[in-house]
Design goal:
461 residues, Leucine Aminopeptidase, subunit E, domain 1, Aminopeptidase, 16 helices, elongated
Amino acid sequence: MSLAFSAPVDGAIPIRLVAPEDCEETLATLPDAAASWARHHGFTGALGQTCALPGESGKPMAVLVGRGGPSDRARQRFAAGAAIAALPEGDYRIESLPDGTEGQEIALGYLLSLYRFEKYRAQSPTLARLSPPDGVDAARLERIAAAEALTRDLVNTPAEDMGPNALEAAVRALATEFGAEVTATHGDSLLDANLPLIHTVGRASDEEPRLIEMTWGDTGPSVTLVGKGVCFDTGGLNLKLGASMGLMKKDMGGAANVMGLARMIMSGAEKMRLRVLIPAVENAVSGNAFRPGDILTARNGMTVEINNTDAEGRLVLADALALAAETPPDLLISMATLTGAARVAVGPDIAPFFTDDDGFATALTSAAHSVADPVWRLPFHAPYEAMIEPGIADLDNAPKGGMAGSITAALFLRRFTAPVTRYAHFDIYAWQPSPAPARPKGGVGQGIRAIYEALPEVLQQ
């Protein structure tokens, strides 16, 4: 599937983007019959509203698309771009794209609306073909859209076809495309490599647990991305109820998102040394599954009391983060579908993140606004450290009481990042629960466009 603009075509139908406050002024520039047509059909410039103006041949002479007001655009992103993608079959061009972030959002919204997940069933294609609008870096937007499509495809694919083996194959395919290198440590070799938590969480599955590592680039700052790759999560012996298990194919959403971000970086030929670490496992149930009450020793020597086998994501991330920290990068980022507490706190549309680095947080927040990829900073709240210390071991993987679950999970992960000084953790949902403009129900990238936009500033700080 190609999420790309079409080549310019002579005779393409012009699109005029109209804000409500400029609607009458725009209509006054049209022939009387066309203006009357638009008024008769109630066109006001509302966000995502469209009105095709008939020409003498029957082909539209132009299409009006509503930009909406600032408050409307703040409530619903990508609506204008999605409206363009939903136009009838034909070749279109935008006469004048708004400056700045709004124009970028409209163009990207069109591209993201081209996405279809067709692995198991053919979907109706988008028939409106849009030439690259003036005023945007079309090639950059196409690279971002392709990365988003990769993330969506990975999350949408069920665990039967996206277990640890398939996830490793997807990483290798991405690496081949961009000349990166991949190594993987499987099964009992994880114990030889001192990655015991990854092994323990995944050993009950028929597919071997593994750590997948991809490296790319040999100049510039070093960036390490760690993504949770729990390809399916039954909850282990603390078995989830059916309703809670139904979406667990998306529990590798952290891995899918760091792969999407890696694709943006590599396709843009950014000057950095990139390292991607993905602990890929299935949290299954069998006679050798790890148990509540077990005490495990992580790569860095810390002991962890298991009070819930359904809090497994932080365990596999712990080993990967400890490995990453042994060669401290300039920036370390982890992404994971880690806690329901994060979803409860900010809902499915916002990517909450944790960092002690105010410069990173400021740059990321600004970038998130400019690329319509909302994030929200949550605190590494030091007084809650005691909640993850059970007494019998160094750490507790599932503190009792249910308070501040996202924060305590983030604090748990931070224990494995020393001596790294610049670390950020994203506790994402990676799923669009209901259709929205440019975002069909299903897997979705969260925070990665904001990170990509912020990286140049962050790495210069």
